[in-house]
Amino acid sequence: xxxxxxxxxxxxxxxxxxxxxxxxxxxxxxxxxxxxxxxxxxxxxxxxxxxxxxxxxxxxxxxxxxxxxxxxxxxxxxxxxxxxxxxxxxxxxxxxxxxxxxxxxxxxxxxxxxxxxxxxxxxxxxxxxxxxxxxxxxxxxxxxxxxxxxxxxxxxxxxxxxxxxxxxxxxxxxxxxxxxxxxxxxxxxxxxxxxxxxxxxxxxxxxxxxxxxxxxxxxxxxxxxxxxxxxxxxxxxxxxxxxxxxxxxxxxxxxxxxxxxxxxxxxxxxxxxxxxxxxxxxxx
Length: 284
Ligand code: PLP
Description:
By secondary structure, the protein is an alpha+beta fold. The chain has two domains: 4-118, D-amino Acid Aminotransferase, Chain A, domain 1 (2-Layer Sandwich), CATH 3.30.470; 125-282, D-amino Acid Aminotransferase, subunit A, domain 2 (D-amino Acid Aminotransferase, Chain A, domain 2). Helices cover 29% and strands 28% of the residues. It contains eight helices and 15 strands. Helix 6 (207-218) packs across helix 8. The radius of gyration is 19 Å and the shape is globular. It starts with a strand and ends with a helix. Residues 35, 179, 182-184, 204, 206-209, 242-244 line the site of pyridoxal-5'-phosphate.
């Protein structure tokens, strides 16, 4: 594999791209990121990812490394240079390079890195079979609304899920599900109503979540935004997760117990179809 990646103003073959060992992203996880999916060579939900990046940067007191238009151009250029038809673009901005110190450096220049990952997103086998999740305590920090690169705990939780024969973990705090390790979590009740946790600092404000809730409202689907318990999830008809890299995906088992009949259900499948159709119309 020799992709063309973007680092601090340059397009380079991936094996020539370098970041300093003094970069604060490396030393302190002092950085934020975004993942934008690409379908048919087009960017999905791009303006929303751009807005969330600006918010994350602002929350941690970092300056934007480039303008919005430049960011769009870089994304498009990477799609072209890598002939990316379907997959993701990963973007990371760190506070930059400085001698190691807990205090933020005064004049560091942000580091910006982007790369593509080709992946079959629309026809992944898990969409047909459904995801199995386990629940684990949510031991992350309390600013989960900021999309920072400190992903060690979610990574550990996902490893634990894999060792337990599942695909992912749902995180639990004070008896309520917060979200998945890298996705937002939802249940569908017998009434057809959808429940997903309300926005706060407890969860990442998922872009796919926001777009899906807008489409659901347009289709007349009722969505309750409130915390839900593991018991409610186990008693649900269907369950699902959303993220830029998987759109809307069914969850069929929680802690070894089936959700509904233990198979991907019709409501999740409809929501996925709606999400894909409508967001492709708006893709850029
Ligand atoms: N929640 C967490 C913790 C995540 O890491 C992610 C994506 O990485 C999401 C939710 C889904 O967010 P989005 O739909 O913007 O990809």
